[in-house]
Each structure stands twice: as structure tokens, then as C-alpha cells.
Specification:
Number of helices: 6
Radius of gyration: 55 Å
Oligomer: single chain
Shape: rod-shaped
Largest sheet: none
Strand content: under 5%
Number of strands: 0
Order of helices and strands: HHHHHH
Length: about 200
């Protein structure tokens, strides 16, 4: 399908997220200039084709008759057809200009797409780097927390061992004290039982 100026005017591009790209206003203005020049080239091309067709058919253009009727009438048909190569050259030049405009528009489009692709790849790479950084930070924090909890556990276990040792020593000392008191009571009781009645004043 041939590309027309209306195709350029009505072309809609999809918006891409997270993409800088070209300034849309500048692109639109430039495409408007392309459309204007393209339409001029098409009009000139159509005029040249019409002139060429009229020369090839042997008809005299109205403008040529108005400007120099006597000269045109005096010129034989083969000579009148002589400007046809020049018109053909103009048509070829116009076609070449149109092709150049299309090529320029295609190149701008390709650059725009390539820049969007590069931006997308950059965003993906940055996101992956950020994910890796967050993962590493989380793992480091987890290791630090595990080490802290391990230290606290060891400290608590040492404290429990210390309290158990204290309890054992305290029980031993208390038992020894109570047994000592019981021995003293037994000794006093035995001493009282062995004392004669006369010794206590009875």
C-alpha cells in the first residue's frame, strides 16, 4: 500500500511508559513540514504528468496557447513533443524527493523505536540491580539478626547455668546450716538429759 501525506497526518503512535524519547511537539511539527513539502511534490508531480500526457497526445496546453499562439502553431508536432524529456526529469526528481522524505520519516521512526528499546532495556537492568541490592541487604540484615539472637540465647543459657549453680550452692549451704542447727539442738538436749537433778536445784 502506497504511503500518502494523510497517512503521516493520521498516524497514531502508542505511548510507552517510562520513556523519554523525542519531544512529541517537535516530532509533530517536523512531520507537518514533511506533509506540506510532500503535498507540494505530489501536486508538482501531477502537474508534470498532466503536461507530459498533453504533450504526448499532441494537445497544446492552455497556458502555452495564451502566451505564444503563433509560435506553437508554427512548430511541428515532433518538435512540440520535445519538452517531454524535461518533464520526465522533473517527475523523476519529484519522485526522488518524495522517496527521500519517506526515507527520512522512516529513519526518524527507526531511531525513535531504537531509543525506546534501549530505554526499556536500561529500565529492566536498573530494576534487576535494585532487586539484587534489596535482596543482599535483606540477607545481610537476616544474618545480623540471627547472630544477635544467637548471642542473646548464649547469654541467657549462661545466666540460667549461673542461677542453677547458685541454687545448688544455696541449697547445700542451707542444708548444712539446718543440719548444724539440728546437731546443736541435739547436743544441748543430750547435755540437759545427762545433768543430775541436784545440779539443776531440785
Amino acid at each position: 500500500m502506497a504511503l500518502t501525506p494523510d497517512d503521516v497526518v493520521t498516524k497514531q503512535f502508542q505511548h510507552v511508559r517510562f520513556k523519554d524519547g523525542f519531544d512529541p511537539d517537535e516530532v509533530d511539527d517536523f512531520l507537518d513540514e514533511i506533509v506540506v513539502e510532500w503535498r507540494k511534490a505530489l501536486e508538482e508531480n501531477a502537474e508534470l504528468k498532466a503536461k507530459l500526457a498533453s504533450y504526448e497526445s499532441g494537445e497544446k496546453p492552455a497556458a502555452a496557447e495564451a502566451e505564444a499562439p503563433a509560435v506553437v502553431d508554427a512548430v511541428p508536432a515532433p518538435v512540440a513533443a520535445a519538452p517531454a524529456p524535461a518533464a520526465t526529469d522533473d517527475a523523476t526528481a519529484s519522485t526522488g524527493a518524495t522517496a527521500g522524505i519517506i526515507e527520512l520519516a522512516q529513519r526518524l521512526h527507526d531511531e525513535h523505536v531504537a531509543e525506546g528499546e534501549a530505554k526499556k532495556n536500561q529500565l529492566i537492568s536498573d530494576a534487576q540491580s535494585e532487586v539484587e541490592r534489596i535482596r543482599n541487604e535483606a540477607q545481610a540484615k537476616q544474618r545480623e539478626e540471627s547472630a544477635r539472637l544467637e548471642r542473646e540465647r548464649n547469654s541467657l543459657e549462661a545466666r540460667i547455668t549461673e542461677l542453677r549453680t547458685f541454687e545448688r550452692d544455696y541449697r547445700t549451704q542451707l542444708r548444712g546450716y539446718i543440719e548444724g542447727q539440728l546437731r546443736d539442738l541435739d547436743e544441748k538436749s543430750n547435755s540437759t538429759d545427762s545433768t543430775p537433778v541436784s545440779a539443776i536445784g531440785l
